[in-house]
Amino acid sequence: MAGGRIIFSTLCSRTIRDDSRAANAAPAARLFTGGLRAPRYIAPLLVLLTALVVLTAGPARALEAIVVSPDQKKLDITLLGELYEGRGDTLSVETAPGPDGITGRMAVQATTPGTDPNWVVFALTNPTENRIERILTARRYELSGSKVMWPDLDSPRIAKVTPSVGFKPKRIPADRADLFRITLEPGSTVTFIVELRSVDFPRLMLWDGAALGKQATDRTLLNGILLGIAGLLAIFLTAIFVANHRAIFPATALVAWSAVAYLCVDFGFWHKLFQLSPDQNAVYRAGAEAALAASILIFLTVYLRLRQWQPWLLSVFGGWALVQVGLIAFSVIDAQLTSGLARLSFLPIAGVGTLLIVLQTFRGEDRALTLLPTWMLFLVWLFGAGVAVMGYLSGDIVVPALSSGLVLFVALLGFSVTQYAFSPGDYAASGHAAHLGRGAAALEASGASVWEWDVRREEIKVGPEIERVLGYSKGTLNCGTEEWLQYVHASDRERVKIMLWTVRDRDGGELETDLRLRRSDGSYLWYELRGRAVKLPQSQILQCIGLLRDVTAQKRSEERLTHNAVYDALTGQPNRELFLDRASQAMLRCESEGTKPTVIVIDIDQVRSGSHAPDAVISDSMLLTVARRLSRHVRETDTLARIGVDQFAMLLTSETDPRYIAMLAERVRRSLRSPMKLSGQEVALIGSIGISVFDGRQADGQALLSEAELAAYRAKRAGADRIELYKPDMSATGDDRAELEKDLEKAIDRRQIVLLYQPIMRLADNQLAGFEALLRWNHPKHGLLSPREFIQAAEKAEMTATLGRYAAERALRQLHRWQKAWQREDDPLFVALDISHRAMLRSEVVQELRTVIGRGTVPENCFWVEVSETVVMENPEQIVEALASLKTVGARLALDEYGSGYSSVAYLHRLPLDILKLDRSLVRSASASGADPVVLRSVLAMAHELGFEAVVQGVDRDRDAAYLRALGCDFGQGFYFGEPMTEKEVMNLVNTLARAAAKAGGQTRTRAGTGAKAMPRVKSGRAGAPAGAKRVAPPQSASQGQESQKRLPGPSDGGARPRQSEAGARGQSQPGRDDRPARPRPAPRENGAASDASSNNGRYDGRERSGESRLGARPRIRPDSAVSGQQPPPPADPEGWDRDEQTDSSPPPRRSAGPTRRR
After folding, report:
1. Gene3D superfamilies, alphabetically (predicted)?
2. Could you tell me where the DSSP H helices lie in 684-797?
């Protein structure tokens, strides 16, 4: 009976089971094709045939086992097993005989009852003595044999695999195939029943795991290459449309993108790329095939220019293309039908396309001739794909070959289109009509329209574009001259009429004017009329022809620019130029009217709010609020203007009573102080107010305004929230400021801008690590000036970028000399430059610094850029951008004066910092109180946890350095290590240290705990100059004597205090603190007085730096002690008071200021 079953299954493989399915036991099997339903009279014949076969069948033949050899890497078992269909939900078969020849029976239930699945039964035998593992594969989609109509698309193939003995095969997860791992024990024979999910029988392959993995890797590599080429072609064809706006480029790109989509689906990338479900691959495949067919049809329509060749063909192809595009959307409803229709549509597309290309080629069309070779390749590819789909072509090489052919077709298509589109003759081939069409389109796109004036008939005609824009019906503006002029604005009507009559009277000429035409809603639009009067050749009748172009946007822009030229864009108030003009006019009227105009300048000094600094939105709202408040205090005849970023000015002409003006100024001051709530923050302003009254001395409005500004400046210096009336003696200060601006322009050329250098020591080994460069102006009249005293002059002279570049170049040049004189490969010297001023952080200054640092004259990370904490907190976002820009060229970034103000620790994470420079107040407060410096220790620990190196300023005593060293601080800076020195003194010091190191025999010592070699140590000493080095004094004038330096007793060092620097003894002026006025400068201190050099005056924002001295100060670093390794005695206290005995943290008393000595 078994033999009868097998024979019957083979004979009935292409029939369909009877509808009644009277008995599930009656077999009815079929193979891959689904055939049509057989007539009902066939059923009795099949029953008779079944009985005949059963009765005449020979002995029963059991299932033959497939021998699995270890050397066999893959095996197609599709036709080596038994295929069952229509057996219901249960299948009972006889197993293959084992080694002993005994057979058995096994029955399997369907996974889902009522599905009536198809079954595949096969047996595998392992003749070897080793275990064999194989992978059973069934691809979810096979192009070969998938059929044209109602194709077999992506779907799951295998529901489960049941063995007769042993463990159940384990499913391996995969998106493109059903994989099961099968294990065969030595000498065993196992029968497997495969339950199928699909209607058609798939191709079953038995793979060795390594061979399957290698094939998957090779296939993935090939797929990636093909997909990359196709993607690049699609991107290229899309991007080239920007350079050449031809329709053929997007049409060709559409073909390329469709091919990319098809390849993505076929390679299994589509659902991964867009995070979609792989179960819908059939929908994606059907849509991709429909898109590819539609794109080729659209390409033919555009490339062959069917609209110009045969216009009716455009309608046919357009409708056809819409149907093809509709198939893409229909794929969601029925993917199988969509795929079948798309595959069928390739045949008419290929046939019609071939016919059109051949016809145009015989007509001499270059386009068709260029496309012909590429189209022939497409026909070959289409033939191969059709043969493979119908099942006549199969094999592992078929699908890769067809995919490669599709990519090659797209590549040749792109090259052909690109070559022809950029050829010079293509434009000429378009014909004269195309040029006229483009000209008309260009005229319409430009917003221009034709304007005609028939002089003899007195008629004017315009194009329909103008009538459409103005809102009139067609033909409304085609009327007589007088009627047409009624649509012109009354202010322009007479001028246009005169121009027309002039052209008529002169029998020729040109028209060129701007006019306004009324719209149907009563508003007006600006138009530009450009025309020329010509005479017709036959009748010599004068006629004007021109263009009307809409220039409304341009006119409004001009009006806006005119308004912005004299009014502030934010507040809407007059700006400085309009204010000066009105002030000058008021001064001219005062002679006849007898009034004295008064100018009040309001300068906003300070903003008090809950945040550190208001952002841009709050600042704008604040200025708008201030403008509204100030406008309440001016009358109609007065003027309120915004003359600066934070400056407003009032011009009073309605009232000249001094008491009224004083009361008005007081009301303005109080209105500024009144808090305002903006964006949830309460903001209070403090302003300085200056008043100037015209008295006949002022030449113009600028002079009057300058006096008021000078009075406001004096009020700001005297203290916030003040009112000052201009007095003639205030001009002296203004003259000094103007003098500084003038002298600064020549200061660099005259070598008056100098740099002083203060040592920075590494505390771990007391070794010289580098220097901080301090910018100074050695003014011939005012003495040594700190940046605080001339940075405003530099801003007005637009020299901040020049100063920054000069300082960086000078510092880097000196650093290069130091490193060359004292070569320390592992630990080279560095230099730090402070740019802590808002003006020095502008984009142009930062760019100049980047240029200088980027030259690479010194090793990377040897140039430090310091920015103070205060400046960072004013505008963190801008500072982050500027610092990041400097860091990219190799600069190390340091946050200076950390701990001196109120900052947010959160910003430390955002800033690209390398070093934290702690303010000297942390050391001074700990030393003065004698308590445990918890704050200092905590800040150091935080810096190290954040990965920053720490530098502590104000190290003025031995025990300060020892304690900081014990806390693990990296660097120290202060009078204990040395005072600021000139370039020559630094060079002498470096040379001395280098010779001392060489004299010691080049011996190196190992740093404690690291094992790294260190250079000779540099310790501070009492001497003012290096041992054996030539003492260099600063230049002196003839009138200045050589004063001896004295040592005064002090309790901290056994009765000795540091000597005053020579420059200080000579009476050079010294930079003051932030609260000191710029002029007059304080007198020099007498010998023995507490030196003010330790204050932070080396900053662009005016804050004084610890340990700085005047020009010519002696270095306090002893190279002899550095070489010998001796610990120096404690130095004198630089502040002139003993911190061991005096715990008060107040600064030492200042001596009274006297006249400034100038040289």
Report:
1. 3.30.70.270, EAL domain, PAS domain
2. 701-718, 731-747, 787-796
How far does Cα 609 stand from its chain's mean position? 32
Rounded to 10 degrees, the C-alpha dihedral 988/989/990/991 comes to: 50
- Residue 378 in this model has a pLDDT that exceeds 60: yes
Output helix, strand, coil percentages for the chain, rounded to the nearest 5: 45, 20, 40
9-39 in b/e form (b: 16+ CB < 10 A) is beebbebbbbeeeeeeebbbbbbbeeeeeee
Q: Say if strands 647-652 and 639-642 run parallel, antiparallel, or are unpaired.
A: antiparallel
Helix (H) or strand (E) segment spanning residue 1117: strand 1117-1118
Tell me the angle at which helices 248-267 and 398-421 cross, rounded to the nearest 10 degrees.
170
Does one domain contain both 706 and 628?
yes
Mode of pairing for the β-strands spanning 177-184 and 170-172: antiparallel
Render pLDDT for 347-376 as a digit per residue (tens, 0 to 9).
999 999 899 888 888 876 777 888 888 999
757: nearest Cα among 823, 846, 818 = 818
Each as own residue / partner, the long-range contacts of residues 1039-1047 (CB below 8 Å, 24 or more positions apart, any chain) are: 1039/1159, 1040/1066, 1040/1067, 1040/1159, 1041/1066, 1043/1087, 1046/1087, 1046/1088, 1047/1132
Is the CB of residue 543 less than 8 Å from the CB of residue 534?
A: yes
Say how far apart CA 454 and CA 481 lie, in whole Å. 9
Say which amino acid occupies 1089: A
Q: Could you tell me if 356 and 320 are in contact, meaning their C-beta atoms sit under 8 angstroms apart?
A: no
How many C-beta atoms lie closer than 10 Å to residue 290's C-beta? Answer: 27
Indicate the residue type of 836.
Answer: S
Instruction: Confirm if 415 and 512 have CB atoms less than 8 A apart.
Output: no
Q: Which alpha helices (H) appear in 363-489, and where do they start and end?
A: 366-389, 398-421, 425-429, 432-445, 464-470, 481-485
Nearest to 978 by CA among 1118, 834, 814: 1118
Same domain? For 270 and 371 the reply is yes
Q: Do 283 and 386 belong to one domain?
A: yes
Q: Using the predicted structure, report yes or no on whether residue 713 has a pLDDT greater than 50.
A: yes
pLDDT digits (tens, 9 = 90+) for 406-435: 999 999 988 888 877 665 545 444 444 444
Q: How far is CA 325 from CA 321, 328, 985, 1114, in A?
A: 6, 5, 84, 88
Map tokens 């080279």 to a residue.
Answer: 828
- What separation, in Å, do the N-terminal and C-terminal C-alpha atoms of the chain show? 130
Q: Mean pLDDT, the chain, as a whole number?
A: 75
DSSP output for 289-312: HHHHHHHHHHHHHHHTTHHHH-HH
- Domain membership flag for residue 704: yes
Among 168, 193, 213, residue at a domain's last position? 213
In a domain, 1136, yes or no: no
Residue 503, both tokens: 């052209």
Residues spanned by the domain of 182: 2-213
Residue 788 lies in a domain: no
Residues 161, 182: Cα–Cα separation, whole Å: 9
Buried b (16+ CB within 10 A) or exposed e, 473-491: eeebbbbebeebbebbeee
The residues, ordered by sequence, that sit 6+ positions from 862 with a Cβ below 8 Å of its Cβ are 770, 815, 819, 828, 829, 830, 831
288 and 410 co-located in one domain? yes
Its pTM stands at 0.38
Lowest mean pLDDT among 568-572, 692-696, 1097-1101: 1097-1101
Q: Report pLDDT for 989.
A: 93
In the chain, the number of structural domains is 4
Tell how strand 723-725 and strand 681-693 pair up. parallel
Q: Which long-range contacts (CB under 8 A, 24 or more apart) does 359-367 make?
A: 360/304, 360/309, 365/304, 366/420, 366/425, 366/426, 366/429, 367/303, 367/304, 367/305, 367/420
Bond before 1026 cis per omega within 30 degrees:
no
Cβ–Cβ under 8 Å, residues 271 and 175: yes
Cβ count near 545 (within 10 Å): 13
